[in-house]
């Protein structure tokens, strides 16, 4: 595992990585709150159509900042398995990660990618149509409200099931586990909120 040398103290690198992870989590948490969504709703249908797109754009910026400033810490590892290329262990991890990445792609495509990114909402608004959720089956709507991160389990598996668990990788994996577990519980309130969002749309029903 080739890592660029970093002469900064390990403590400084740990603090930097922790702050970057916190920035990413706080951005996600704040922009996923009901208060944030209601703020967008208060500005009308156009703002509501942009809400998901703005969320994804800010998430992308936050992720890029984290990637750019991330500090590798190869000095310490929880475990480090020797995987000579072509060996059985190397083949095992290669196949495992290939399967997980394929599952991630499949899960992402099984949901509506354009709606997930927020592009569909903008397109519908420009054409004078109602919010895409209005045309979605109510059972699928309920599923969407419960699984907005369908590939998180796969992504966490990619982080944890790795031959080298460096300290920075462990910090990232542990933080994301806490992020997922500590998330607000999804109950009928969230589902009702989606329905209320659809009801509040006053765009003419012409598809």
Short overview:
The protein is mainly α. 66% of the residues lie in helices and 3% in strands. It has a domain of 135 residues.
Task: Using the alpha-carbon principal axes, give the shape.
Answer: globular
Number of strands: 2
Counting H and I runs of at least 4 residues, what is the number of helices?
Answer: 10
First-to-last CA distance: 53 Å
Query: What structural class is derived from the secondary structure elements?
Result: mainly alpha
| Poorly predicted residue ranges | 185-193, 201-207
Q: How much strand?
A: under 5%
Global mean pLDDT: 77
How much helix, percentage-wise, in residues? 55-70%
Give me the side-by-side strand order of the main sheet. Answer: 1-2
| Main β-sheet description | 2 strands, antiparallel
Order of helices and strands: HHHEHHHHHEHH
What is Rg? Answer: 20 Å
């Amino acid at each position: 595992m080739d890592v660029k040398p970093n002469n900064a103290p390990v403590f400084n690198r740990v603090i930097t990585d922790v702050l970057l992870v916190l920035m990413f989590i706080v951005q996600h948490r704040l922009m996923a709150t009901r208060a944030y969504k209601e703020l967008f709703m208060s500005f009308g249908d156009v703002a509501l159509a942009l809400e998901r797109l703005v969320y994804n754009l800010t998430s992308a910026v936050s992720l890029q900042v984290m990637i750019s400033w991330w500090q590798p810490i190869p000095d310490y590892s929880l475990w480090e398995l020797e995987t000579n290329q072509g060996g059985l262990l190397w083949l095992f991890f290669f196949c495992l990660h290939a399967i997980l990445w394929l599952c991630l792609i499949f899960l992402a495509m099984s949901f509506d990618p354009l709606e997930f990114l927020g592009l569909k909402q903008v397109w519908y608004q420009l054409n004078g149509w109602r919010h895409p959720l209005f045309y979605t089956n109510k059972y699928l709507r309920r599923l969407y409200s419960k699984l907005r991160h369908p590939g998180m389990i796969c992504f966490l598996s990619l982080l944890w099931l790795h031959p080298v668990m460096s300290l920075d990788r462990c910090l990232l994996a542990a933080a994301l586990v806490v992020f997922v577990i500590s998330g607000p519980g999804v109950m009928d309130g969230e589902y009702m909120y989606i329905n209320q969002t659809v009801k509040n749309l006053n765009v003419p029903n012409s598809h």
